[in-house]
Amino acid sequence: MNHDYSIAFTSKIHREAMGHLIRGDGQEDLCFGIWYPSEGQNRTTALLYRLLLPQTGDRRVHCNASFLPAYFERALGEVVVVGGGLAFLHSHPGPGWQDMSDDDIWAEQRHAAASQGATGLPLVGLTLGTDGAWSGRFWIKTAPRQYERRWCSNVRTVGDFFDVTYADSLRPRPRFKEELRRTVSAWGDDVQAKLARLRIGIVGAGSVGTIIAEALARSGSSRITLIDFDNVERLNLDRLLHATTATACRRESKVRSLAQGIRQSATADGFEVNEINYSVAEEEGYKAALDCDILFSCVDRPWGRSVLNFIAYAHLIPVIDGGIRIETSSNKALRRADWKAHTAMPDRRCLECLCQFDPGLVQAEREGWLDDPEYIKGLPDSHFLKHNENVIAFSLSVASLEVLQMLMMVVAPVGIRNAGQQSYHFVPGISEEPKFETCSESCPYPPLTAKGDRTGLVVTGRHNKAEKARSHCAKAKPSLMRRVFVKVRNWLDGLK
After folding, report:
1. What stretch of H or E contains 143?
2. CB count, 10 Å around CB of 308?
């Protein structure tokens, strides 16, 4: 798999850049910025952290724009102090994804060496179109004194709104397919092209995760990553899509079972599903999550949720989360069932502030206490570890709310981009008014925004339960006939 590059920044940075770079007189403008790296399994993302706007005499605006050496040196000095990389931003007088002129290439390429030498990170370039669309690139050192441009497959804005600009040469627009006629008719070709090309991660391939994966595959999503360490068991068969008695008997991994199922359901050409048989709290699962543009949180443990919450802010990847709570009486009669869905990202309330995990239990889980029968026995009867009731009808509703959270964010019907924090009560069958809140002033997550790998925090570690599950997982690989069939099918799809 080729290494991918991307850029992300908050909606606040986007607006600040638009205000400076898109001039009323129609001329181009420029500025520098600070970025921090986010290294995934197969993707490097530059997280634009802060703009370094020019001062008087720093640049010349003359239809095109150029900066003076003093501005570059000052910006580079500021970047070195904070341990980031240097970004160079400029505007073009036209809409859409922007290519580079010869002057653009010369200006960036000749400063790539100084930037790399001072910061240890590549120079990152961005070009802004008049409609708010971005193009981006990394200048990668390939030989002594030689730097080559690597285009970013997408540039994302994350915050009180979400937007993405694709490089069509790297992520081509999907062709029309009869299978998606009804889906596309709901929001049009442009929105479908945006949705279809997102790399979407589903963390947790349980009852909610399998339904979300099925919905996305049938809706034309072309790239899905499944992250889960667990295996299919017989007690899962009342809720897991695509799980069968056969997969349970051989204890097949949940990601393998689900991946095989959604490959049959997928409507997109060249559909890709990445099977990650790890917890998101392990380094392998965590790195795979950083390759994604949007993450669905379908986990029920505090450590996994805390890692996803960290990713939402530090790495600027929106996390769509939900949960179910069921309460029964002593004679096992249903008393209440409540579920909720919400999205954690900058300018929205985080999962800790939403009480979706107890930070005090994160370390307890890391140390294995939440899997110790004696520890669990001493917990109150009301504790979530002693309650695992669920039915597929409730999972269907939670999964639907989570998918709708994503659609509201990406489709933005009539300009509405935030569905808020949604809650439903099965007893007595009512939905609460959505809430639109932000984090408390003391919340530790907003200060981590766009810091990426430079937060200084380690959120992953050894996961004993995951390691034990993998040791009992079926190791069977697809048959030779199956592998040949998949390759031929993908080849034929590419010819269409």
Report:
1. strand 134-143
2. 30
Distance between the two ends of the chain, CA-based, in angstroms?
Answer: 22
User: Cα(294)–Cα(218) distance, rounded to whole angstroms?
Assistant: 18
Calpha distance 400→267 (Å, rounded): 19
Q: Coil, strand, or helix at residue 9?
A: strand
Whether the Cβ atoms of residue 315 and residue 452 lie closer than 8 Å to each other? yes
Residues in the chain: 496
- The radius of gyration of the chain's CA atoms, rounded to the nearest angstrom, is 24
Contacts for 427-431 with beta carbons within 8 Å, 24 or more apart? 427/334, 427/335, 427/336, 427/337
CA 462 to chain centroid, in Å, comes to 23
Report the C-alpha gap between 13 and 31 in whole angstroms: 12
For residues 266 and 242, the answer to whether their CB atoms sit within 8 Å is no
pTM over 0.85, yes/no: yes
Instruction: Give pLDDT tens digits for 168-220.
Output: 999 999 999 999 999 999 999 999 999 999 999 999 999 999 999 999 999 99
CA gap 154, 4 in Å, rounded: 9
Give the CA angle between residues 261, 262, 263 to the nearest 5°: 90
pLDDT tens digit sequence for 280-314: 999 999 999 999 999 999 999 999 999 999 999 99
Inter-residue contact 130 to 21 (CB < 8 Å): no
d(CA 321, CA 308): 9
DSSP class of 54: P
Contact, 305 vs 321, CB < 8 A? yes
DSSP characters for 348-405?
S--TTTTTSS-HHHHHHHHTTGGG-HHHHHTS-TTSGGG-----HHHHHHHHHHHHHH
